[in-house]
């Protein structure tokens, strides 16, 4: 017996839902209740149904292709966060039937030119922007031309990011450092210091504010100022700041990055050999795991899903004011580790 | 005066070459002598000529789109090498007029299905494969269907990789560890040890062989066996191996990875506080730079250019037996660093 090739209609009949519901499961899964979605997906899987991407594009006039600028490898310990976003976006895009096309550009103006080229050459459906700032030429151009886009990171150096009309998702740095500070206090350390960056930046200020918020009530403003140091975002910078704060009475440290935390960690280890260094970093980079350093892990997979959901909602003509939230701050989670024992000579 | 829009013909006249030469500079630059290419490129730049990718695709019937599977972030200290390849490929592809499309897949069989989908949906021109091995279903499928592809990494676990008909580029691990070993010997260390992986792997054996080759003549086989240890690819593994080899008389260490080297480095620092640890890692990861660890840097940008050149030659119908080399082993370069001083308590 030849098995008939399944269609949207035969699948809908098999599950007992409408053809539109099956189509939504494939194209706009966020519109379908989870229970129904699971039943339809199971039926699709059992039937061997395979939607043709080309057919879908003809039907929807979408290329199902999203573009993203791949910035030069940032280097440094924290440079891997955007790479992790890229991995997560590739998977989230694919789960929703999109492809991801990469391009490079030397600056924002050049990125606009690349976006024009890609729209012309490959009819991309939308773009994922990173590093968006006030007066960003990419935002102006995309808005002017009605091209869908979503941002990783709030627009920096501008007015209230919650007031901009375009979607973004970002990591709530203040919530992260506040949680790390509370964790260290709850673990019995009274004087928790903070190591931030010398360079001004919105994420840097935010990470410091979270620490300060979690320390208010415990120390006077004057005492708090003593427990704060700033350094270049390097391992040496972290070591030097840790030395200073140790002298000033800090018992534990929350750091704005894993590079700073690694330096603080190494310094405390050699300065106070008998004691486990109480240090928390930020970004949960591979080196944090390698040396057993506690760190704040940004919810990259969740951020990537949000970006794809927002774009997918817009691209499928979903109604304004409905669909996923336009501006979303995600709390990092604290990964607590035990420092690795690298042994002493026998 | 309205300036006329430049064309291939007007550009050719301006430079004094044929129209075909200008076209080659844009589409098959490897066919044009460097001096001519530079003159044409300068004329193109001055004229503001901008080839339309869509027009080029219509003319050449190519999508100018290459696919690559983005594997899940490997994690660990060395996990960033494929991400660095991705950055380099994006730039190299763009320089040659290609785009790069990413996809994910759970295994090689699923990757074949994704490749089929992408050829159907987006008419990709070719693919970049990583992790190719003997009996690889992706290689079989692509060869059978005449789809161009190039590999990063030699095919593993099979017959002579130089005998396979498809192109690959890889890092010469043995040349790297041999150079590191010679460097340490030339720096005055007689007994250079090697820390490898417990797990069998072709890159692991190769890295050990390079060390052994550079040590032959200096030590007897028995003495050499004493200077070699194996460990899990972790920081603790490296620390434990360093402890063992130090006891056996090793004065300096070449390690198969930066994770191992970081552990060896930290152990030697605490075990022999007065002496700078003489350790060389492999892959030149961000953490090596952060802590001032010498390491072998794989020539990723060169590898990416080679992959794009090989694919571009094939896609432009370049003659077999000409064009870039089909199988290319690239030597890593040794990056010598001074260990960072993280300070001692005052």
Automatic annotation (TrEMBL), chains A, B:
Gene3D superfamilies associated with the record: 3.40.50.2300, lambda repressor-like DNA-binding domains
This protein's UniProt keywords: DNA-binding, Transcription, Transcription regulation
Transmembrane segments: none
Residue intervals of the HTH lacI-type domain: 6-60
Pfam families documented for this protein: LacI, Peripla_BP_3
InterPro entries xrefs: HTH_LacI (IPR000843), LacI/GalR-like_sensor (IPR046335), Lambda_DNA-bd_dom_sf (IPR010982), Peripla_BP_I (IPR028082)
SMART domains: HTH_LACI (SM00354)
PANTHER family to which the protein is assigned, alphabetical: HTH-TYPE TRANSCRIPTIONAL REGULATOR GALS, LACI-RELATED TRANSCRIPTIONAL REPRESSOR
Protein name, per record: Alanine racemase
Taxonomy of the source species: Bacteria, Bacillati, Actinomycetota, Actinomycetes, Micrococcales
